[in-house]
Amino acid sequence: MSKNLIPAQRRKLIQVYINAHKIASVADLSGAVDVSEATIRRDLEWLEKEGLLERTYGGAILNQRMNLESDYEQRAISYPEEKRMIGAHAASLIESGDIVFINSGTTTAQIFHHIPKDADITVFTNNTIAAFEIGNEVGYEIVLLGGRLNNKVNAVTGSLAIGYLSQIYADKTFLGVDGISLKYGCTVPTNPEAEIVRMMIARTRGLVAVVTDHSKWGMVSNFEVAKVDQIHQLITDDEHDSGAYDALVSKSVDVVITNPQNTD
User: Fold this and answer.
1) Closest listed residue to residue 214, CA positions, set 231, 239, 188, 182
2) How far apart are CA 11 and CA 4, in angstroms?
3) What is the assigned CATH class of domain 7-62?
4) The HTH deoR-type domain covers which part of the protein (predicted)?
């Protein structure tokens, strides 16, 4: 690669590389474009200002927009084994006597499947799958929040749910999100779901954990529910790039990696 490229050509090559790889270190880009790491850092700064990518710890990541809610069934078939492992680990963190908030989503639904059936806990949720399908199989208490039913994502939202949550304090909260990014935080597609998640975070006395597979890293949806440094833990799978892990740790997020290859 020629070192005589003008900045516009160089930045285009950087974009092509990141579009292909989704995430890249400064060293990777320096080798691919054949310029110094200092030059790459300046180019990344310029590209970030243009909204074309997001700089991370030691590199950059492609920002991908996710504006619309996808159907529950469509999301459920994506990374099922990863979601199962993530849900199992999250469930293992719940202790006897806990009051727990869990929002809607296919990964959060897996948490309900892995909580011991006779657990002495109470879960408040807007996840109708958990309430109607899992609730009949378990002995622990599941309280479905009232509100408007969204059949597309199997969730309830609205002022009734918000009002109910405002009267409760939880020991732990587990949240599914549609995007997580250092710059844009944790995001979801709709404001009604965002209101639920924000209230859950505000009413939690202890652990706030995001549960999501690696595909949500770098995704940006419409409504921010939390800055990255507002969450305590990210429970995810082992497909995250090391740069993503380092970037999250730099924000004091405890990143828990589950490994679907090591199933029981």
Assistant:
1) 239
2) 13
3) mainly alpha
4) 7-62
